[in-house]
Amino acid sequence: MSIFRKISAPVLLLCAIEIFLLLYFPPSLILEPAVTTGGDTHSHFMSAVVMRDAGSFFSPITWFYGNFGGFPLFLHYFPFPFLLMALASFIISLEVAFKLITLLAIIPLPAAVFYCLKRLGYPGQVSTAGAALCLPFLMMSENHMWGGNITSTLAGEFSFGISFILAIVLAGRLFTDAPRRRSLLANSLIEALIALCNGYPILYSGMASGYFPLRGRAIRYIVPLHALALGWTAFWLLPLMRYASWNTPFAHWWSFQSAFELFPPLLWPAIAGALIALGFQARKLLRRIEPSDKNALSPVRPEVSPGGTDRSCEASMAPGVMRATPREAPESSAEAYLWWHFGIALLGFGIAPHFGLVDIRFLPFAQIAIVMLGAIGWCRLILWLPRPNLWLSLFTAAMIVFSFVRSATVESWIRWNYSGPEAKLLAEPFRQATHFLVGSENSPRVVYEHSDITNGAGTVRAFEMLPYYSGRSTLEGLYMQSALSAPFVYYIQSEISETPTTPLTTFYYSRFNPERAAEHLRLFNVNQVIAVSGGTCNALDISPAFEPQAAFPPFRIYLLKDAEPSYVTPLRFQPRRIPERDWKTVQYAWFRKSTLKTPLIVADDNTPGDYWKTVPVFEGAPEDIPEIPISGPD
Length: 634
What we know:
The chain has 634 residues and is mostly helical. It has 28 helices and eight strands.
């Protein structure tokens, strides 16, 4: 018992919060060697396999053939979480390592907020309130695609979640380290890890660091900080920048269906606390309270309450009381610093689509800023009351109960994801179908219909893992921004799916058209199609281009007729040359509207080599491309 008496109440309450969070993840699920399912998470597992087998961390241009017709796996995605998984797999199975690393996006968040508020100069009670308010934030189910909370992590945003937590830690450290010009190397390393985990937190952190130069402080610290972080990540960032023009932009304007998406009920306690904090700041501003000269330089002497509690911290947070200690400046500016972070998050949300980014990825930073401001607001009340640690304990207990009663969705998602595909309703037909399709990278590709029915196998993206389960390549994949062929792949999906996803909003898609799809599939060396829905199965049954091959209800496998089982075939028609200007748009129009017989070569007059100059230039409509057969040998 003497050990616990030496531990402060805030730290004990933080431990209680973390234990409560850990109880949602039963060891029987986490330590079971099953591939994690659910949303995008299932497809991420293949990246961990490649990292383990190919050692791709310092070689981002690792070509992966399994999806999109081949693409550089870690060139436009973030390698660090997968490196951790690969390293951990030397001790435990890769499946378990994968699960444990995904938890790094969830479990440390309350501790990170606790640490950040402590670094901002607030007493332990405020830090504990922030950690407690993290629980409702984590349990939110309205925002399961934005990142930061549990459902987003389970949907596949664990890289974002890890980077998000590191960004919170860095924000707290910079507040105290930047003005004092200390810990430059350590902070640059944290910033580098943020970048190697996800792009949005590093963009946010970079924008938010403008707080210091704009206030005329720490300019000589911030610039070297970013320069050092760039140096740490140069092995990955420089190739990313060099080949950025080869990726596929994914600009997205989020459409809000309800006000509860922006202000979910689980966030209301934090919002209320932030409003309380804002009210106290407004009250100070309106009254223009200034300490007298007598007290301005006098430190607050520690006061000990009858219960033995140091009340100097309580007085400093009390409404209407100005701190007369050297910590006046940090406390008064810390709140402005958090509001600055809130504003930067909203700015990122507003401008993101104009730069080909997803706007909603910035909103979790606004929400977590509200969580920390809410902790400040509630503690301005709690620390004014007698026995503040008791009230803080009751506040923490209330947040735990509030989170628990609204955690049903989170509990079901956790069990769904971590129980693996073997526990799903369609586990057996999915296993049979993937076993039937067993082959190698040299085998022709397999394509599949997108359908919500497939979710019965663990996720609608289950067949993206055909390279893992069957050794066969497929077309669709998770990292569509990394693949030059992504628009073409999703166009094919729209031709063979009753409910296509059409994720790239700047491109046109097709109506359901299996006959035209057959021509496109032959171009991509696809010889088998997995159909799921009744409409698609019926259409392929009567199509002259397809032949039923096997059935594992609800999955049916069709053979594409007249498909050449080869990735390289001789040209049959003379090619035409198009200039590099807007070549992606021209090639996409050719794919949609031409007969696909005449290939288009992208080459300008200054392209090295002489052969290109002999190829006729074509700049007309794709329907008018001349088709001139190439004569065979005599």
